[in-house]
Amino acid sequence: MASAQLSISGKVTNQTGEVLPGATITIANPAQSSVANADGKYSFNNLNKGTYSLTVSYIGYLAVSKTITLNAASRVADFTLTSSSLTTETITITATRASKNSPTAFTNLSKKDLEKNNLGQDLPYLLNQTPSVVVSSDAGTGVGYTGIRIRGSDGSRINVTVNGIPYNDSESQGAFFVDVPDLASSVNNIQVQRGVGTSTNGAGAFGGSINIQTGTRRDTAYAELNNTIGSYSTVKNTVNVGTGLLGDHFTFDGRLSRVQSNGYIDRASSNLKSYFLSGAYYGKTATIRANVFTGYERTYQAWNGVPDYVIGDNSIQNNRRYNELGYISENNYYKDQVDDYTQHHYQLLYDQRITPELTFSGALHYTKGAGYYEEYCKDDDLQGTYGITPVIVGGDTIASTNLARRRWLDNDFYGVTYSLKYNPGKLNLIVGGAYNKYDGDHFGNVIYTEQSAGIGPNYEYYRNNAKKNDFNIFARAEYQWGKVLLYGDVQYRNVYYKIYGPENKQQFVNELAKFNFVNPKAGVTYQIDQHNNVYFSFAVGNREPNRNDYTDRLADQNKPKSENLKDFELGYRTTQSNFSAGINAYYMLYKNQLVITGQLNDVGSQIRKNVDDSYRAGIEVDGRVKITNQLSWAANATISTNKIKNLSQALSNTTEDYAPLPPVPQFFSKTNIAYSPSFIGGSEITFAPVKRGSIAFISKYVSKQYLDNTSNVNPDGITTSPDVANNSYAVNRFLKSYFVSDVRLNYNFSVSGVKNIGLTLLVNNVFSKKYEANGATYPGVTAGTLYNYNYFFPQATRNLLASVSLSF
């Protein structure tokens, strides 16, 4: 027993004595690894007597190896790393990221953090345990179309970059990770910022930012196979290979992936494929990397959700998995009711160390996307919807018919990003910017009609073009003055956006919008000691409307306005050897915020409208504690209030025969912002009963969320509709709170010829909780009675994902 209590521990520093937190220490026999903590310390415990080979690596430094012999006592082995003579990609990511002492709220996720849960679910699900985050899935399983909200703000308000290059769609401003399936298998690290954060490229951040860095230099050759099978016929296969450093200068890496799932919701299947290729040259002062990655997705549409009269326990059908899209007749659905889209990304990244204090980073990029929605439409109006003049066949006038159509998007996005960093010592100065252009064609074809409509094949019934130019430049400085870090940041952004031509509702669109935004930021961090600091920041963000705000605005809405946000952040961070924690208070004051109305357009996108004054205020707490060498606990919680001041809106109003009546007005002095829970909590308890094996119990709680901005208050003098088959969903415009738990088991071992074999079992929703993570509502008044037409997105009950990974 005594021989099993030996350990190896130590500290990792550079030549100047600075600790290197995050350095990776590995033992080759048997293979296991440790990561240096904030003090640069590491340890391997419960070792037997014997000889061990240790290797320490850290980005920008040469790897160091030592051989340690354990006899009757534990050993201390400190490591001192020297800077590598070759450059790395650390320059690329610093321009858009917060540093460890920056006065802003952020979370860093390493490749190791992501790999624990990367079993096929979309990238938002790998971020689910970061503070203030809520995720959802159209198909209910996390595969296919997924959504993410940060502090109540949806994905169209979250700025996403990949290697500093904007990823959000230029028009919708959403980040559709389904278009780059299994991207996480090529990611080195992610930083999630909350609030306005630091200046970055692309659209302004109103809820947060997700900054992704793909793979960096790996000096030794490798091959990895990752395979997952799971519930609802879910399959994931990934192959990763790399050459390591060739000729002291070159590396080549590649990945090939496929992900398939039938989905929890009926027919909500996903067929996803992707590849990632990367080649790099490393010199003494320069790095050049070329990335090419492509994603293909074909998903059966499930973007409407499930009607409330179907979903409840006392409802008509009691079928949580019901999908009405593609309906032809009873038990007969259109098999090609799909979203089919391909996206190609090309990146050329260049880093140059000009002097020890001055570095330059630049990138050229091009993204090509093309695809369509295919839909079956019953008894559709030919003239009103498609501009097709009714024809007479055999004496009958064909004014409507069953048909199938495709709505296409064919777009190009390209540009340049750059940054210049000057760091002579106490001053850290970055000047950067970008110029990006977007050119997108939107058009639709009727590909099939059940009855002759007098048109040829692939009849085109609309086409419009959109162009967008986006220019920005920013300067950011951090100055260390004793224990005080002073922070200043300002960005200028110019946006030109034009839409021209008929759109899918046969309306001619001619919109031209120009915006000039100035976004200043300032802050201060006080370093109490090497373990504790407090910070305060103030930031201004401005953001333009998206395409749907122009094309889908309701009849009573004016042309959308740009939004303005003033973000105040106050926080405290502590990092100890076995404990780290942070608390952050925020107040986000909006002018003309585009809030979600609760309604969806005909392709599942949220419809929004400006409100004059609104705010979000809250407190975020997160921490991690190492209770024993085998037991640790990480947790986070957000308590918030999210309000609109002086909201006015109008509900549609008709007679019993659906003849239009004047709208029914509603006025609120203060009401809750839709999809903004007042409490979000996450927890992960990890127990490692054996070396290289662990059990994790992962939980998430999300409080009630309103589906629109009325807080479920009905107009005075209007009768509320009765329950549909005693289904309470029919009278409530909100998502019920939910508490969901997962269990993850993993074990790693090695055999001759295989560096590591990893076994993982993820049991999602282990207690089989029935809940809905997203929804939509369409309230309206008919004959003096309010009817709520609600749709919900049920998430899967208990389901499994099992993975085997091999590393060579």
What does this 3D model show about the protein?
With 808 residues, the protein is mainly β. The chain has two domains: 2-81, Immunoglobulin-like, CATH 2.60.40.10; 222-260 and 287-807, TonB-dependent receptor, beta-barrel domain (Maltoporin, Chain A, Beta Barrel). Strand 17 (234-242) and strand 18 (250-261) form a beta hairpin. The radius of gyration is 28 Å and the shape is globular. The mean pLDDT is 90. Its main location: membrane. It is a multi-pass membrane protein. It is found in: Cell outer membrane.
Protein traits:
single chain; 5-stranded mixed beta sheet; Immunoglobulin-like; 6 helices; 22-stranded antiparallel barrel; mainly beta; 2 domains; 50 strands; 808 residues; Maltoporin, Chain A
